[in-house]
Design brief:
The protein is an alpha+beta fold. It has 2 domains: 187 residues, no CATH class; 124 residues, 3-Layer(aba) Sandwich (Trna Endonuclease, Chain: A, domain 1), CATH 3.40.1350.10. 39% of the residues lie in helices and 20% in strands. The chain is built from 12 helices and 15 strands. It has a 5-stranded mixed beta sheet with strand order 8-9-10-12-14, with helices on both faces. A 3-stranded antiparallel beta sheet has the order 3-2-4, with no helix packed on it. A 3-stranded antiparallel beta sheet has the order 5-7-6. The longest helix has 17 residues. The two termini are 23 Å apart.
Length: 340
């Protein structure tokens, strides 16, 4: 039968798949090779050593956010989205915006988000948290006592468990699973490639892409204006809801690698004044915490935000600039032959 080759839910692009230095320990030798790794995939290979030192003195490492992640989920009632966990951990650690705005490499993902992705991976492998197909993370047990947990012990246990897996012959089904994961690792490189392509587009091309994106999403009468002195408004469209309701939306699209600030959201809202009650801000970058709060401030016209991570996912869902390869999967039913 034919099926779409999709990423496993554990491999949603909350991570950046850039090259990182990895030390692989083999048959009595060491070799250092830069490869593309995802936190959830690393365990299937040989014993990799991931740096636990801070790449920046101000950015917390993944091991320092293990326990705050558990605390965040407890505060959130036992479950939460990646965005909710990110916000809560930032509050627990009292991280300032200048730290949260530090990007990981040349991508739109923040360094804190990248490290926090590793934190969730280690906690999942340790058996403390789990995630659903809808991207919601939850505690395995609600009665987890953070005071008796040791971050160093969690890291040590996970790495030793992964190392033991590589020293024992894997059953056939586990080998197949490993091979499938390698295929997934090769496939998910589209994420970084697409983001770089978006950044390379000229402003007018990015505006046309946004126009196409909105049309494919159900908007009608989408027009790109891009007038000088128009307060940053790049276009207008009509959003239709279930074929019954519709409302005008002004949008701004910014091909940007940094973080959109609250002042830029306020400027956009000011340009919306008297023209519409709904705004949409699309960027290849990210939004600061204050920008997100400003977009949903009480008493002000709401502005929906789409950052770089959401943008590449939406393009994939709509098949815009992304080709999904169809494969055929054939399984042999041994029981059928037994009962013949």
């Amino acid at each position: 039968m034919s099926q779409t080759f999709e990423m496993d839910d554990d491999l949603l692009p909350e991570y950046d798949f850039t090259q990182i230095p990895v030390v692989a320990r083999g048959q009595g030798r060491k070799c250092s090779t830069p490869i593309q790794l995802d936190p959830d995939v690393a365990a299937i290979f040989l014993d990799y050593s991931f740096p636990m030192k801070r790449s920046s003195s101000s950015v917390p490492t993944f091991d320092s956010m293990l326990l705050p992640t558990i605390q965040a989920l407890q505060i959130l009632g036992g479950s939460g989205t990646t965005e909710e966990i990110y916000d809560k951990v930032a509050q627990i650690l009292n991280l300032p915006d200048e730290v949260l705005n530090i990007l990981h490499g040349s991508t739109s993902q923040s360094a804190v988000e990248y490290q926090l992705g590793w934190s969730r991976t280690y906690l999942k492998k340790y058996g403390l948290i789990q995630n659903s197909v809808r991207g919601v993370w939850s505690l395995v047990k609600t009665s987890i006592d953070v005071d008796i947990l040791d971050a160093k012990e969690i890291v040590k246990a996970v790495r030793e468990a992964d190392k033991n897996k590589t020293t024992q012959p894997a059953p056939i089904n586990e080998t197949d699973e490993a091979l499938g994961t390698v295929e997934i690792l090769a496939e998910i490189s589209w994420h970084q490639k697409l983001h770089k392509l978006l950044l390379s587009l000229d402003p007018s091309a990015f505006e046309r892409l946004t126009q196409r994106l909105l049309r494919e999403s159900g908007f009608i009468q989408v027009q790109v204006t891009g007038k000088v002195g128009d307060g940053g408004i790049d276009g207008v469209g009509i959003a239709r809801v279930s074929g019954f309701l519709s409302f005008h939306v002004l949008f701004q699209c910014k091909r940007y690698q940094g973080s959109i600030t609250a002042s830029q959201i306020r400027d956009f809202r000011g340009a919306m004044q008297g023209r519409t009650d709904k705004g949409l801000f699309i960027t290849t970058g990210t939004f600061t915490r204050d920008a997100i709060k400003e977009a949903t401030r009480d008493g002000a016209p709401p502005i929906d935000l789409i950052d770089g991570e959401q943008l590449v996912q939406r393009l994939k869902e709509l098949g815009l600039g992304v080709k999904i390869t169809m494969i055929e999967s054939v399984d042999v039913d041994a029981n059928w032959f037994i009962n013949i």
